[in-house]
Amino acid sequence: MLGRDLCAALAQAGEDRVTAADRAALDITDASAVRAAVAGHDVVVNCAAYTNVDGAESEASRADAVNGHAVGLLADACARGGARLLQLSTDYVLPGASPEPQPEDAPTGPPNAYGRSKLLGERLLAERLPEAGYVVRTAWLYGEHGGNFVATMLRLAAERPRVDVVDDQHGQPTWTVPLARQLVALGRAAVAGEAPPGVYHGTSGGRTTWHGLARAVFTHAGLDPARVHPTTTSAFPRPAVRPTYSVLAHHRWPATGVPAQPHWEDSLVLALQQPAFQELAAKARG
User: Fold this and answer.
1) What is the DSSP track for 232-270?
2) Fewer CB under 10 Å: which end of the chain, C or N?
3) Would you please indicate which residues are annotated as catalytic (active-site) residues?
4) Which domain holds residue 214?
5) What is the CATH number of the domain that holds 208?
6) How many Å from the N-terminal Cα to the C-terminal Cα in the chain?
7) Cβ atoms within 10 A of the Cβ of 58, count?
8) pLDDT tens per residue across span 207-261
9) Average pLDDT for the chain
10) 103-106 CB contacts, 8 Å cutoff, 24+ apart
């Protein structure tokens, strides 16, 4: 989902020397394959991840291999070749219980196995590539090219007269397109020596709940938002604990010259104009 939009953003920015390696082309848990893939590149962006949050509770070793140890292999390869590494991470490395937006240097404390695997990747990157490693934490990601909450809401709108959505988890819905553009800008700033390494928060501006996002999806897709009803997290028990407040602060971007992302609802309006979402919305409207 993010990788495809990143390739498009690179092309739009005039970057014509890009290697896009999907899962079939590169196993990032294979050290020799990673070294060969990284060689000759100036910037590496790792969009690969084990993203099954609930599945990680029973497959922690697999999640650790992809989200953690593989990042160490990428960092080693980048150190060998002199490349910068931009590693996508998650709000789930934080406890998610603070009532205020969390800064980049907030104490970590993952509430679930998925978050612990991503934090392992962050730590290995900082340890092995301290001068050229960049962590970009994102959250509540959606886009045209993969399964996500926005697409699910549009599909449910076509199937059900009523949709119940949790209203006690707070976060920042983030569209992959502005995140991809931000990653391109950060990579360029890193190469130019204008962005110090470390942690950055790559989420939209503003905040809402899953219920608030669902109502906004219905509203901007021309559907009746009154069909979306609030409920609680306890009504949908799941294996992995979800944080109640996943709002991230964006303090480090101004020093890099890289713009922060737009407000989440402004991005949503534009995202819903994309063909895949337009098709789903048309089906929902009948």
Assistant:
1) -GGGS--SSPPPSB--B--TTSGGGTPPPPPBHHHHHHH
2) C
3) 114
4) 2-285
5) 3.40.50.720
6) 27
7) 12
8) 999 999 999 999 999 999 999 999 999 999 999 999 999 999 999 999 999 999 9
9) 97
10) 103/249, 103/251, 104/137, 104/198, 104/199, 104/200, 104/201, 104/249, 104/251, 104/252, 105/199
